[in-house]
Design goal:
Distance between the termini: 81 Å
Strand order of the largest sheet: 4-3-12-7-8
Oligomer: single chain
Largest sheet: 5 strands, mixed
Radius of gyration: 24 Å
Shape: globular
Length: 336
Amino acid sequence: MPPLSRLRPAVWTRRSLLVQLLAWGQSKPQAETSEFDLSLLDDWLTPLDLFFVREHFPAPAVSVHGWKLAVGGAVEAPFEIPYDDLVQQERRVLPATLECAENPVGGGLVSTAEWTGVSLRALVEKARPRPEGRFVRLTGADGFNRTLPLGKALHADTLVVWGMNGNKLPGNHGFPLRAVVPGWYGMSSVKWLRAVDLTDREDTSEAYRRRLRSLLAGVRVAEPVGAVEVKSVFSRPLEAAILSGRRFVVRGAAWAGEKQVQAVEVSADGGKSWGRARLGKAVPYTWVLWEYEWKIPGAGNYELVVRADGQPAERVSERVDEYEQSAWQRIRVAVK
């Protein structure tokens, strides 16, 4: 048997390797999910460092060098366009609010930015779609993909973008290229966009589809989630806030995807009576900021509720998925 002094280096080597493997496991990239803190909602556009992030897989390591967008599938003239050529195309600047389909009531998986890019329609038409190409599949470098109906993909406002609030896309927002599908939930706005393919079929996966429960059929998978539902949120006061005085300006935001919010109402008695909020500037595809002057009758506990046009008070009981949670938001505050 070798002396102990000759065994130690081997033991130390195995131990070092184990430490390195453990360290590697702890530092392995993870998919990021971070919310926008709605209490910081002071401006119509969300600063880049506050914009919510929702990743399905860890962000890929990417570089502009050699980056190309491929357009193919059911087309007559497939092609690839380098990043440097794409950014020289006729550009569009479009404000749009993005919301994660899994954003809960009152949640911060929603933000607004001004996007700079090129119409997806121009790229698709250049490839000359064949008649069977009724859907467009967008694929990111992280492996995530979504399929759009051809009509939505060819809408003039559906973009491939490289800019966000006048800057290049940050890495966690899809640098160097991403899709922006205004008025639809954020999963359709695929990040790190690598490929645009026309196809004859809709995505058949069960991700981002409504799930409905019935007594006769049990749970069934229904149509895919697409356009954003109307929704409204409080930014101030916060849940469980303690207020003083007899006046408070209640604030928040409301949005309706492809539609424009017409009215926001606030209740200070749990939904028994309502007052109309003042709306800020209205811009297509974006949230509208609102404020409501609350004249507080006296000290006590209050339930504040907010709703926008046609927003449901509660979610329908048949829904068993986590998507499109757009019921009224309710918060409770105390007044001294």
